[in-house]
Amino acid sequence: MTVRPEDRPTRRVSVVDTTLRDGEQAPGNAMEPDEKVEMAQRIEALGVDVVEAAFPASSPRDFEATRLIAQTLKRARLATFSRTTRQDVEVAVEAGGTGNHEVQLVATGSEIHLEHKRGITREQAVREVTDTVGFARALGVRHVSVGIEDASRGSDDLVRALCDGALDAGADCVILADTTGCATPEEFGALVAKVRAWAPRPVRLSTHCHNDFGLSLANAVAGLVAGADEVQVTLGGIGERGGNTPLEELAALLAYKGGQYGLHTDIDTAGMYEAYTALRRVIRLEEPRNKPIFGRYAFGTTAGIHQQGILSNPATYEYVEPARFGRERALLIGRHSGRTILRHLLDQLGVGTTDEQFTELYHRYITGREGSDSEDLAVVRDRLARELAGR
Questions:
Q1: Cα dihedral 21, 171, 203, 219 sign
Q2: Nearest Cα to 141, choosing from 227, 77, 193, 198?
Q3: Cα angle vertex 43, ends 41, 45, to 5°?
Q4: What is residue 3's predicted lDDT score, i.e. its pLDDT?
Q5: Residue 193 pLDDT greater than 70, yes or no
Q6: What are phi and psi of 250, to 5 degrees?
Q7: Residue 230 and residue 220: Cα distance in Å, rounded?
């Protein structure tokens, strides 16, 4: 008996949204505490499991944002970012409490970082992790995660020592970070598989991938297939340099291909674009043109061949359905549009033409149109209607 992908049992993927912190690592406008609260509510409404609020010890503004978000979240867990120091943890707990709070610690996970960034030994790196995890647990924090920074370039010995030290001290989650975005899916999947063998469930294993090679989504999925339970994401993929794994791309992929991978999420795909639009407004982010799912023209086309197919049946050129993601289809008129789209406009207007008239309109509205910009179908239809009404 052949088992179809949609019939396979699926494993639920936990989603951690780090938009509120990682988005501020990119050049641009930082969010004020009240703006972070608004975005935290929007992100929680999408169905994510954890909302990472801020780095409380970094500034009074992040402290206040954490305090407010801790009071606001109704379902999702609050997470905060801290260095492996007792002082950072004390500040995080003061801001976010211990009840629904995951303290996320960053560990130094590669030899290049040990030597050139921290100037400490491997033993010191492990010791500070075990000490800080134990301190957080002693304060009553139930969930402590240890993010191994630059894990994709760290030696097995170092990464394992950090994992063992963190878990022995009471951490319940290990986050593997491809901090420089240097990993390929094969490399990152192999790393996750090794750590999964060292840290079996119920320890949560999470991924934090960067997009420098455009592989953050592929690496995150490779990590899930290799045994990770969780993915850290941001709306629109915002973050340092090329950004982080985009929430919308992960949700879209699993919505369509989850059966193939045996994975699913509970993310509200229809609500993501509205949340992203609010984020762009808050941080004054320009609208991207061709970004998957969220790009201005992600569901638009000027190509006549595509338009002919879509007008006949949208499935001919739309595998990803716009309405499923809160978007609308856009058929745009440009010099590459074909005769079919003009006939479609004339049919909508209930206007008949001779072959000569049609050829003349086709030249003026499509092949001979001035400028290089394309126009929305409705704009051209209105202009065409006014012209034909005046004849």
A1: positive
A2: 77
A3: 70
A4: 39
A5: yes
A6: -60, -45
A7: 9
The residues spanned by each domain of the chain are 11-283, 300-390
The fold of the 11-283 domain, in CATH, is TIM Barrel (3.20.20)
Mean pLDDT across 75-88: 98
Cβ atoms < 10 Å from Cβ of 103: 29
Distances in whole angstroms, Cα of residue 262 to Cα of each of 165, 184, 236, 322: 32, 21, 25, 24
Query: Residue 30 corresponds to which tokens in the numbers above?
Result: 């930082």
Q: How far apart are CA 349 and CA 388, in angstroms?
A: 9
Check whether 62 has a pLDDT greater than 80: yes
Question: Per the structure block, which two tokens stand in for 131?
Answer: 């000490």
Q: What is the pLDDT of residues 295-335, one digit of tens each?
A: 999 999 989 899 899 989 999 999 999 999 999 998 888 88
Distance CA 365, CA 372 (A): 12
Q: Closest by alpha carbon to 171, among 126, 208, 237?
A: 126
- What pLDDT is recorded for position 360? 87
Report how far apart, in Å, the C-alpha atoms of 309 and of each of 305, 306, 313, 338, 359 are: 7, 5, 6, 11, 21
The answer to whether the CB of 197 falls within 8 A of the CB of 203 is no
pLDDT of residue 362: 86
Task: Encode pLDDT of 206-232 as tens digits.
Answer: 999 999 999 999 999 999 999 999 999
Alpha-carbon span 298 to 263, nearest angstrom: 25
